[in-house]
Amino acid sequence: MSQHVLVTGGAGFIGSHTVVQLVNAGHQVTILDNLSNSSIIALERIKKLCTGPLDFIEGDIRNPSLLEKLFSDHDITAVIHFAGLKAVGESVEKPLEYYENNVGGTTQLLKAMQHAGVKTFIFSSSATVYGDPETLPITEDSPRSTTNPYGQTKLMCEHILEDLDQTQDGWKIILLRYFNPVGAHISGTIGESPAGTPNNLMPFVSQVASGRRDTLSVFGNDYPTKDGTGVRDYIHVEDLAEGHLAALNYLLEQPDNTLQAINLGTGKGISVLELVNAFEQASGQQIPYQISPRRSGDIATCYADATRAKSLLGWQATKTVEDMCNDTWRWQSQNPNGYDA
After folding, report:
1. Is 150 marked active-site?
2. How far is CA 180 from the centre of its chain?
3. How far is CA 141 from the centre of its chain?
4. pLDDT exceeds cutoff 90 at 31
5. What is the b/e burial string over 15-43, where b = at least 16 CB atoms within 10 angstroms of the residue's CB?
6. 178 vs 180: CA distance, rounded Å
7. Which residues partner with 259 through β-bridges?
8. Residue 261, Cα to own-chain centre: how many angstroms?
9. Is the CA virtual torsion 83, 89, 93, 95 positive or negative?
10. Cβ-based burial of 116 (10 A; exposed 0-12, middle 13-18, buried ≥19)
11. Contact 129, 144 (CB under 8 A)
């Protein structure tokens, strides 16, 4: 059943891939993005990958008059909320900016939705809400805690949505907790284009492989893991986008006042050095690295129990580590400076 979906932050890394899948599945999509961490070039490429029309509004979710006009002018039936700041290190340096943007922006969006009577909502959350996990794999019922302002904003938004579900009628909400999104569209035309120095492993590795950066720093090789380096659950962004489509389909079939937290991951842990080796195979390039001290707040191992996603959404990740590396390398090779000319 075709829906009119508002996608906030739809020009970003995960948002762009999700928008393409939504449109190509027959949904009408309006993107709202302030382009603070994305590019108008990405938007142009998204449109070329879509088989149907796509609306774009440049604006900020913290602007109540803009939101009021948007919901008045468009017959929105569901919202997928990606818009937010997402760098852990930056959040430590600029906590107020993160709280104002991520928590304040989400609150403004929810108020506008409530006023417009739009109550189907998919929230872009994160495995960071689990903090340092007590047991593995991590289930959705694992204790939640955070170690930085970015994670705290995600957890605060989850609490807001839980309170909304408990006190207001009619809401249908899914909290999608991502693990480590990587990869790119198979065409190589859209992918991850971080501003400045990448905060995540895969884009840094790909920039070293392309010669854009000299050396990869591996932060710690004395963790209690198979090779001493940190282990994470890497998930292909295309699998992640399919998870949002499955979440939307699920919510449309549910009664009012539904709230589910769902992990999106592969359920498998990959170490830093295993990922580096896989990327060397995909790219045919040597990736020089140096061992550096552990970073404060980093944990040894983190991977998902994705059973709930399979049972409720009928979804599971299908892309391999080789797929992730091949698609990232294709994107990096075709776009050595990302969306920047």
Report:
1. yes
2. 8
3. 20
4. yes
5. bbbbbbbbbebebbbbbbbbbebbbebbb
6. 6
7. 173
8. 15
9. positive
10. middle
11. yes
Nearest one of 140, 68, 123, 62 to 98, comparing CA atoms? 62
Q: φ, ψ for residue 160 (rounded to 5)? A: -60, -45
The residue count of the chain comes to 341
Residue with tokens 């689990």: 130
pLDDT in tens, 42-93: 999 999 999 999 999 999 999 999 999 999 999 999 999 999 999 888 999 9
Q: Are 6 and 61 in contact (CB under 8 A)?
A: no
Name which of 273, 262, 261, 278 is nearest 320 in CA terms. Answer: 278
Rounded to 5 degrees, φ, ψ at 209 are: -60, -35
Separation of alpha carbons 152 and 148, rounded Å: 6
The 10s digit of each residue's pLDDT in 294-324 is 987 788 999 999 999 999 999 999 999 999 9
pLDDT at residue 341 above 70?
Answer: no
Rounded CA-CA distance 67/110 in Å is 10
CA–CA gap between residue 304 and residue 100 (Å, rounded): 29
C-alpha–C-alpha distance, residues 83 and 33, integer Å? 7
Listed in sequence order, the residues at least 6 apart from 43 whose beta carbon sits closer than 8 Å to its beta carbon are 11, 31, 33, 56
Minimal CA–CA distance to 148: which of 91, 70, 197?
Answer: 91
What is the signed CA dihedral for 31, 32, 38, 40, rounded to 10 degrees? 70
Q: Can you say how many angstroms the Cα of residue 86 is from the centroid of all Cα atoms in its chain?
A: 9
Cα–Cα dist 151/125, whole Å: 9
Level-2 CATH architecture, domain 4-182+234-265: 3-Layer(aba) Sandwich (3.40)
H or E element that contains 147: none
- Active-site choice (98, 150, 178, 303): 150
d(CA 181, CA 178): 7
List 32's β-bridge partners, or say none: 8, 57
Q: Cis (ω within 30 of 0) for the bond into 224?
A: no
Write down the domain spans for the chain: 4-182+234-265
